Amino acid sequence: MKEIVKIENVSFNYHNRAVFKDFNLSIEKGDFLCVLGESGSGKSTLLGLILGLLKPNLGSVKIFNETLSNNAFLRQKIGYIAQGNSLFSHLNAMQNMTFCLNLQGMDKEAAQKEAKALALKMGLEESLMDKFPNELSGGQAQRVGIIRGIIHKPELILLDEPFSALDSFNRKNLQDLIKEIHQNSCATFIMVTHDESEAQKLATKTLEIKALKALK
User: Fold this and answer.
1) What residue stretches are annotated with the ABC transporter domain (predicted)?
2) In what order do the strands lie in the sheet with 205-209?
3) How far is 28 from 135, CA to CA, in rounded Å?
4) In 3-state terms, what secondary structure has residue 133?
């Protein structure tokens, strides 16, 4: 099976604290990896390393067998759903949802059609499309963020506690939708969560990260 993410012998320190030491991980095409661990154990740091937002002190991180840094083509193949409200404050809900499609040059009307179809699945009313992030509830903003992260059909989707701002009803609906997308596509998912039941429902593989001790 094709490797999508390969992390080899990575060490990463943050403020005199060893977050990872000689860390190795291989993620194959079609995997749904759930990363579990206590707060501060390095779960979100792992996503930062994969996204190229953080650079390891030692070792290498490759995506699609290439280094991600400053590679615009590779970045188009990745979707990222952050924890909480990470929407662009100067764009309304529709503009946020269609942002990646616009970057790819899709026709505006076609992009909005795609967004409206996903919004309907996620229980977002059409009246919300013109609202800006500060006019949305936490759950509404989170759902808009999820759409923005998956609408361009990326090959690799990274999710950082994506359901944290949702009530139980919308949490279950979106878990079901993410599971459906995974089952009906060849996309690879990496999701950070503290919820073991969530991991059991969605994951094909799990990884538990434990915090390392501070450097001497």
Assistant:
1) 5-215
2) 78-81, 156-160, 188-192, 32-37, 205-209
3) 39
4) helix
Distances (CA, A) of 119 to 54, 101, 171, 176, 180: 32, 15, 15, 15, 15
Nearest to 99 by CA among 86, 9, 1, 10: 86
Q: pLDDT (tens digit, 9 = 90+) per residue, 28-79? A: 999 999 999 888 889 999 999 999 999 999 999 999 998 877 677 778 899 9
pTM of the model: 0.89
Q: Are 37 and 209 in contact (CB under 8 A)?
A: yes
Q: Where are the domains of the chain?
A: 1-77+154-161+186-216
DSSP-derived 3-state class of residue 128:
helix
DSSP secondary structure string for all residues of 142-200:
HHHHHHHHHTT--SEEEEESTTTTS-HHHHHHHHHHHHHHHHTS--EEEEE-S-HHHHH
Task: State pLDDT tens for residues 131-177.
Answer: 999 999 988 998 999 999 999 999 999 999 988 878 888 888 889 98
The DSSP code for 137 is -
The correct CATH number of 1-77+154-161+186-216 out of 3.40.50.300, 2.60.40.10, 3.30.360.10, 3.40.50.1580 is 3.40.50.300
For residue 123, what are its two tokens?
A: 């229980």
